[in-house]
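ZP: hey, is the magnesium ion complex queued? I don't see it on the tracker
AM: it wasn't, my bad. submitting now with these inputs:
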Amino acid sequence: MRGNSFAFRPILEIKNLSVVYNHRTLGRVYALSNVSLDVRPGEALGIAGESGSGKSTLLKSILRLFNPGETAAVSGEILYLGRDVMKMEKDALLALRRGGIYMIFQHPYSAFNPVIKIGRQLDETIRLHGSRREAPELLEACGLDGRIPDLFPHNLSGGQLQRLQFAMALAAGARILLADEPTTSLDAVSQFEIIELIKTLLEKESLTLLFVSHDLSLIKYLTDRAVIFYGGTLIEDSPCPDLFKHPLHPYTDALIKCIPQPDRDPGIIPGDPPDLSNPPVGCPFFPRCSKSCDICLGSVPLMRTSHKVRCFNAGPYTEF
Ligand SMILES: Nc1ncnc2c1ncn2[C@@H]1O[C@H](COP(=O)(O)OP(=O)(O)OP(=O)(O)O)[C@@H](O)[C@H]1O
Ligand SMILES: [Mg+2]
């Protein structure tokens, strides 16, 4: 946790965000349901949950990165420094995507123009944003060799390209980084180096981070706070130390037990995630939960104990 940044008002406020996709065969897919969360400047927020739980949809929503016709309905508010991204005109949205909030893609090759040398791509970003920083300084800040401007993207390794995405984000003057599994496609050494780079950049550049990962141990290592998604619902939101010591939602507890440990068999969560084209009423984890009872079949509010949780069995609590 860095400095006293949590004293400030949120840099990003997400209120009751719901996203419904148009699926070619399934029809409507309810990818996110009433998600609310705040992110404070300088905070590193981890986002975890099983495949299909809505993590990428959350990041795409923040920059409205949906293709035409991809969604059937998107509702709620996404406030960046108090301005609603959902209501932004095209120009303001483009400026936001190129500047304030920067998406770090999982597959870095897709983030660059393959036929333009790296130096030109970086210089264009610097010029476009009127950055006072120069390419060599940005490359050095991201641990890149000063000779790479003469190369094309395909001349770089995955790890180098991933570093370059961070250099681009700095060139663009980004304040928030959205990183959707940024290390999944990398080998173990490169993965470690990128995580260390992110840590350094968070410290030195006062960035805010939303970090999606399936790897809870990475989230524990890198982020201050984490939110857990299940079936398109935010089910737990807590500072990391507390979350990993005292997970309150049975799903979070089960997920943490799935982290491989040398002294025990890896946990498994029996059953399957919900079908979001026919979303369940009540707690989406109900059919797989060992603690479920009748009350869980109704709507479960987000409750506050030592941290926020959407489960009746986590008490004592006060309702939000
Ligand atoms: N373009 C789309 N059209 C229709 N349904 C979609 C689309 N994109 C995602 N979905 C569905 O929305 C739900 C949430 O998907 P999302 O990609 O946000 O999950 P995720 O948590 O990022 O999963 P993963 O961990 O596999 O990346 C899933 O049921 C998924 O199948
Ligand atoms: Mg995803």
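AM: back. The CA atoms of residues 271 and 288 lie 6 Å apart.
ZP: great, adding it to the tracker
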